[in-house]
Amino acid sequence: MTARSCCSRSTRNRPPLPEQWMFDPETLTILSLGFVLGLRHALDADHLAALSTVLAERPTVQASTAIGLFWGLGHTLMLLCVGTVLLGLNLTIPESLSSVFEFAVGVMLVVLGVSLARRIYRERWHLHVHEHDGRAHVHVHSHRVQADHAHGHWYQGSLRPLLIGMAHGLAGSAALMLIVLSTVTGIGQGIGYIVVFGVGSILGMVGVGAVLSVPVIYSATVGPRAYYVVQGLACVASIGLGVLMMVRIGLGSGWS
Predict the structure, then answer these.
(1) How far apart are CA 176 and CA 2, in angstroms?
(2) What are the residue ranges spanned by the domains of the chain?
(3) Phi, psi of 131, rounded to the nearest 5 degrees
(4) Closest CA to 46 of 204, 241, 235
(5) Does residue 230 have a pLDDT over 80?
(6) Given pLDDT bands bounded at 50, 70 and 90, which one contains residue 12?
(7) At 58, phi and psi to the nearest 5?
(8) 186 phi-psi bin (left φ>0, alpha ψ -120 to 50, beta other)
(9) What is the rounded distance in angstroms from the CA atom of residue 64 to the CA atom of residue 220?
(10) Hey, which of 117-131, 178-192, 229-243 has the most confident mean pLDDT?
(11) Mean pLDDT over the full length of the chain
(12) Which residues fall within 8 angstroms of residue 117, CB to CB, at 6 or more apart?
């Protein structure tokens, strides 16, 4: 066997370089699909319910987009950590364990809803009497709403949405890995898919946070009563969806 034939065979059997599979049409299609699914994933009902309970306490666009950003970062971080381990060891998450993670998300939604309800209940209301044209008018006022609106920074409270996103990422890792394992052809493609899926979910949640902030901000400008009505709706949605998740999973119907 000649040296040329040996070199030719060695080159032919060499695995493709990262830059080769990254720009392969099939790989680009897979990654594009992952990005689109990540955007869509941000609209899942349990994500919206959890996000709304946090957004309801921060009536500013900056805080709302930051909440969506940190939720997406936590979600992506958990997916990437779990996904890398599973891809490296060629493992999948058992369905029973996946159900436990999803049930825990249901519990978390109930806790978030109850926590927001307690905040609403503990708000300090004040009555202010003003006279206009000889007639007395009573105004209901809460200093805490104004204090939160005036002094809150966009990055405050970022740890909570980060942890909520990580919990959602852990619960959704099993379903995502089923898609990854049935779509990709290697570990590199799999990690790339998870990354672009995560980027899509981050952008999706930032957009969702901005959209959901509109009724919160508007209600805060209308007055305390409208503001607490919006918060109350977020409480009911989060608690109701959390209970529904736990019931369905407990009965074996599953959630995702």
Answers:
(1) 48
(2) 25-250
(3) -115, 130
(4) 241
(5) yes
(6) very low
(7) -130, 85
(8) beta
(9) 14
(10) 229-243
(11) 78
(12) 232, 235, 239
3-class DSSP string for 182-210:
HHCCCHHHHHHHHHHHHHHHHHHHHHHHH
Do strands 135-141 and 126-132 pair parallel, antiparallel, or not at all (unpaired)? antiparallel
The reported pLDDT for the residue numbered 118 is 87
CB neighbour burial string for 222-238, b if at least 16 within 10 angstroms, e if fewer: eebeebbebbeebbebb
Q: How many residues does the chain have?
A: 256
Looking at residue 14, its pLDDT comes to: 44
Q: Could you give the C-alpha distances from 56 to 64, 107, 170, 189, in angstroms and in order?
A: 9, 19, 24, 38
Smallest Cα–Cα separation from 42: which of 151, 141, 161? 161
Token digits of residue 31: 């990654």
Residue 145 to residue 120: CA distance in whole angstroms = 10
- How far apart are alpha carbons 155 and 152 in whole angstroms? 9
Residue 152, Cβ neighbours under 10 Å: how many?
Answer: 16
Give the whole-angstrom CA distance, residue 193 versus residue 79. 11
Largest CA distance in the chain: 110
pTM of the model: 0.75
Using alpha carbons, select from 193, 194, 201, 203 the residue that is nearest to residue 29.
193
Query: Per-residue pLDDT tens for 125-135?
Result: 544 445 555 56
